[in-house]
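To the wet lab folks,

You asked to see what we're planning to order before we commit. Fair enough. Below is the target structure as tokens, and below that is the sequence we designed to fit it. If anything looks off to you, flag it before the synthesis order goes out.
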């Protein structure tokens, strides 16, 4: 089992990795399929199913599909070019992806929200169709956005496809226990084992540049959030709060008037800054998803700015450790809110961040595993119930609280010797089982919980 650090942490756009980035990636994949068809394709159609239909507008799924079919992709997306492309498609009713000429695609008619027919493979399903000159369907392909920007075709999902392709890796741990056993046998840290696995795909220099780029985008997103005021889009009229809190905290610094627990405000502020940027559709890094993108960068920023001895040169170690834990959760359970609720998103993010922080504070492999388990355990059962389907309430504050839990988990683990009652593997298994038992109302459909009990207009 190998999930690259560059798959867990992907540069993209907000507000959702599963509902925005994933559908855009799926559209790009379908265009590549169309380029190889032996038919004369003159038009396209897209159908959104399950959670993508129910919360698609709030998560900008419709925009993502339109832009994806126009040839845009998340990692190189630029807001100005995206807005121009969106306006052009809506005005002309066509897309012009590279190598395919002009294809009919009028979003009002050709982008269909199918609320009554969920696809069997995953709650986040969408289908693309190619049309001939008469408007008949001549090709169809189904894709599933399985969380964190990962996309599988119907055939890939049925075949149990994952990201464990390519050359074998030296430390192919499929469980936390295997990870600990390999660390003990090799004498290497979790980050060092993860780096050895990454080296089978990229050079050391490429990995270091890639990790630096991930942190650069994360921190840039966080900083923009700390400097931006205003109201978030979507109709809830949620005010950005991170910038105001940050200014107040800076003003209070050194005045000896604040209580020790004010450090929680710094951590929450960092996380909220990222998720406000995400909610505004800005550039963000999946960590492991967009809805949970604030926790990992907030914990790193907390560590760098507030913990004595922290050095930027070890951020890569933090990210590698976090990715190792995230890969275990993705492989053995889920990182998708539509599949398992917010326990799979903010819970996973907190476990990843706790592991990374514990590692850079000098924790052993056993302490790192303990930190991840503590953080994940205390998110179990958390639902995903976004008000009006927007990644705003309760998502933004939830990242702040997830950050606080992650730091507390790492600190508690460092106070022990790594031995504990509940293994991380048991916690991950429980996440999966809890997600399966959870009502669909509470899995990113906006049909239950806060989504129906809070006035949203």
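Sequence we intend to order:
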């Amino acid at each position: 089992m190998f999930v690259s650090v560059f798959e867990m942490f992907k540069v993209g756009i907000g507000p959702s990795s599963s509902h925005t980035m994933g559908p855009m990636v799926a559209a790009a994949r379908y265009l590549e399929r169309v380029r190889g068809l032996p038919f004369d394709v003159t038009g396209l159609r897209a159908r959104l199913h399950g959670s993508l239909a129910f919360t698609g507008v709030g998560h900008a799924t419709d925009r993502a599909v339109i832009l994806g079919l126009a040839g845009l992709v998340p990692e190189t997306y630029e807001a100005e070019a995206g807005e121009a492309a969106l306006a052009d498609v809506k005005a002309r009713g066509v897309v012009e992806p590279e190598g395919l000429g002009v294809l009919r695609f009028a979003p009002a008619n050709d982008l269909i929200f199918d609320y009554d027919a969920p696809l069997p493979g995953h709650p986040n399903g969408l289908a693309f169709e190619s049309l001939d000159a008469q408007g008949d369907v001549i090709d169809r392909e189904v894709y599933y956005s399985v969380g964190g920007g990962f996309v599988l075709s119907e055939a890939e999902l049925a075949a149990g496809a994952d990201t464990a392709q390519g050359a074998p890796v030296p430390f192919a741990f499929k469980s936390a226990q295997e990870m600990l056993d390999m660390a003990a046998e090799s004498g290497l840290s979790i980050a060092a084992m993860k780096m050895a696995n990454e080296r089978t795909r990229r050079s050391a220099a490429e990995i270091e540049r890639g990790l630096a780029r991930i942190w650069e985008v994360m921190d840039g997103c966080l900083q923009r959030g700390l400097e931006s005021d205003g109201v978030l889009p979507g109709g809830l009229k949620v005010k950005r709060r991170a910038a105001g809190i940050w200014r107040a905290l800076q003003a209070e610094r050194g005045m000896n008037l604040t209580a020790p627990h004010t450090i929680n405000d710094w951590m929450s502020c960092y996380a909220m800054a990222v998720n406000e940027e995400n909610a505004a559709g800005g550039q963000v890094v999946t960590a492991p998803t967009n809805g949970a993108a604030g926790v990992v960068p907030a914990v790193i920023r907390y560590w760098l700015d507030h913990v004595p001895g922290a050095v930027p040169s070890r951020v890569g170690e933090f990210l590698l450790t976090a990715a190792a834990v995230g890969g275990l959760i993705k492989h053995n359970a889920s990182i998708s809110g539509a599949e398992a609720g917010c326990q799979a998103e903010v819970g996973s993010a907190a476990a990843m961040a706790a592991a990374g922080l514990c590692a850079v504070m000098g924790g052993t492999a056993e302490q790192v595993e303990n930190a991840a388990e503590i953080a994940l355990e205390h998110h179990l059962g958390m639902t995903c119930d976004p008000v009006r389907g927007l990644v705003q309430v309760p998502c933004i504050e939830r990242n702040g609280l997830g950050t606080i839990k992650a730091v507390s988990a790492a600190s508690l683990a460092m106070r022990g010797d790594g031995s504990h009652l509940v293994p991380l593997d048991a916690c991950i298994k429980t996440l999966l089982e809890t997600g399966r038992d959870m009502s669909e109302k509470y899995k990113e459909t906006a049909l239950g919980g806060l989504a129906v009990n809070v006035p949203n207009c």
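Structural context that might help your review: Residues 3 and 327 are 5 Å apart (CA to CA). Residues 176-200+202-453 form one domain.

Thanks,
Computational group
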